[in-house]
Amino acid sequence: MVSQAEFEGRAEFEGKTVVVTGAGGGLGTAIVALMAQRGARVIGCDQSSEALKSPHLASRHVFDLLDRASIEAAIGAILDRDGVPDILINNAGWTRAETLSALTADKIEHELDLNLTGVMMFADPLVKAMAGRGSGSVVFISSVNAIAHFGNPAYAAAKAGINAYAKAIAVELGRNGLRANVVCPGSIRTAAWDHRLAKDPEILGKLQRLYPLGRIVNASEVAEAVAFLASDRASGVTGVVMPVDAGLTAGCLPFIDDILGA
Predict the structure, then answer these.
(1) Residue 198 CB coordination number (10 Å)
(2) Whose CA is closest to 51, among 91, 80, 109, 97?
(3) 3.40.980.10, 3.40.50.620, 3.30.450.20, 3.40.50.720: which CATH number matches 17-191+217-250?
(4) % of the chain residues with pLDDT over 70
(5) Where are the domains of the chain?
(6) Nearest to 145 by CA among 227, 225, 248
(7) Annotated catalytic residue: which of 155, 165, 206, 211?
């Protein structure tokens, strides 16, 4: 039997071009490093050049998901400079409106534009180019918020739209050699949690009782799921929404502890 280390040493993404959005973020950095480690030529995309300092990046593109002209220019630059990607990993996203009471018309528009409209506008031309070539794998980073409600209502609505979009790609373009899947992380300890920690330094400890594994996931665990779905190991997998959430969406552990176990 081949060990995991031996398998990884085979560089399963050798000769593959991978586009990663949000490449400079906590999860994006882990995805970029893992894909590069396994042989991919990684193209990083983010909203600033400062976010794209990783030595693992072979090419860098700066654009803003809220700016249509910026998106269109980046797509042209990617196709001209780097060619049609073999793998597209749509990772960029952001939220701050954490409850219904925090929503305003501007916040709704901002979060839907960033997390759904901008993502689709960027992905659509690349997805169609991949389908035109006759092969490709697309992975979207969604959220457990798209599966059950854990707050962030506008973000959750946008991520639910991403899940639906991925299934549309899987169904309509499967015959063109394209696969599309979704990873739905639970809480990940990245800089995205810093604003919550600033309000409550004990918040990570409070999270533990919600998760059947007794902890939240780390970025490398989510990156492993992304790499699997992107790879030929998942050649028969498409249209799947995969939680990577330490068991959060499997059931309500506090109900077991507080009600049934009382």
Answers:
(1) 9
(2) 91
(3) 3.40.50.720
(4) 96
(5) 17-191+217-250
(6) 248
(7) 155
> Residue type at 80?
D
165 belongs to the catalytic site:
no
Candidates 53, 107, 128, 159; catalytic one: 159
Taken as a whole, the chain contains a residue count of: 262
Task: Give residue-wise pLDDT tens across range 143-187.
Answer: 999 999 999 999 999 999 999 999 999 999 999 999 999 999 999
Is 167 an active-site residue? no
Sheet with 17-21: strands ordered across:
57-62, 41-46, 17-21, 87-90, 136-141, 178-185, 241-244
Can you give the pTM of this predicted structure? 0.93
DSSP sequence for 51-78: GG--TTEEEEEE--TT-HHHHHHHHHHH
